[in-house]
Amino acid sequence: MSVKTPDTTTEAHANTRPGSAEGLPDYAPIPRPALGPALNEQGYYVGRVEQNLYWVTDGTYQSAFLTTKDGVVLLDAPPTIGHNIQRAVDEIAAANGVSNKVTHLVYSHHHADHAGASSLFDKSVARIGHEETRKLLLRDDDPARPAPEETFQDRHTLEIGGERIELAWHGTNHSPDNIFIHLPDHDALMLVDIVNPGWAPVYQSNLTEDVQGYIAAPGTALTYPWKHFIGGHMGRLGTREDIAVHQQYMADIVDHSRKALDTVDPTPYFIKYGENAWAGVRGYLDAITAAAATPVIERYTGVLASADVFTASTTFHVMQSLRLDLGYGSQVHP
What we know:
CATH superfamily of the largest domain: Ribonuclease Z/Hydroxyacylglutathione hydrolase-like
Number of strands: 12
Number of helices: 10
Distance between the termini: 26 Å
Radius of gyration: 22 Å
CATH topology of the largest domain: Metallo-beta-lactamase, Chain A
Order of helices and strands: HEEEEHEHEHEEEEEHHEHHHH
Largest sheet: 7 strands, mixed
Oligomer: single chain
Number of domains: 2
Shape: elongated
Structural class: alpha/beta
């Protein structure tokens, strides 16, 4: 068996990246259904989700807001959208003759890429999030992300200006504090950093901290009644079919990772590298990842955008969770 296998892990890929744009690889074209509406001259798109619920995107990140008779409830504040959040609110408020004042801000979780524009809004804005979000933001001490004053543990219903928003924590997934934001009267669910509608997850299952929780989260999402899905990323809203495709994609990665763990022989890698045990480990794990990821990439290229870009990284992540979290393939020395 040859020990020359393609680099597939994040570290290995980083070690072999070309130093200039001329040497960068080419990737498969983006499937047209993965793309959303065109952005305006200021670099954003704002559209109606349902009734008085709206979403904003810069093509890569998403925020949402609900206009009420008492003001605007903002759901996440990604810094890449930044001041365009208020511009989008202003645009909708002017068109509908309602208040443009943001009075409440709900954090989906503590990460800066979804909450880093929070400080653009007045200190009087009521910030709301999971109790763990508050702990983490107090720890991180980032002035761009004031910690929420109103917190909850498992479930919390917001009733603001005659509107209802149901918040729930179903355990760790992408992060320890990532919550489900359900708007039952608007037929919508917001769940950030789990499913990127039309796209494969980025590095390591969307940079997830709990792989098994991440894999389970879409199933929980489907137990809610909703038509519109706000995933926090990319340029369009999602559907229940997008969730199902993502579930199958992850299930295929799990299945092929198990098969690769069962069949790839580690012996040649450790013979090759002798005393350099870490080199043997890297060669072996790269080989498992390549064997598992290749059929998934072949199946989903043209189905999920960037399946050929990030599937290997997510496969490595999932395979490690199978080994370390579930104990798959673990053997006790006789």
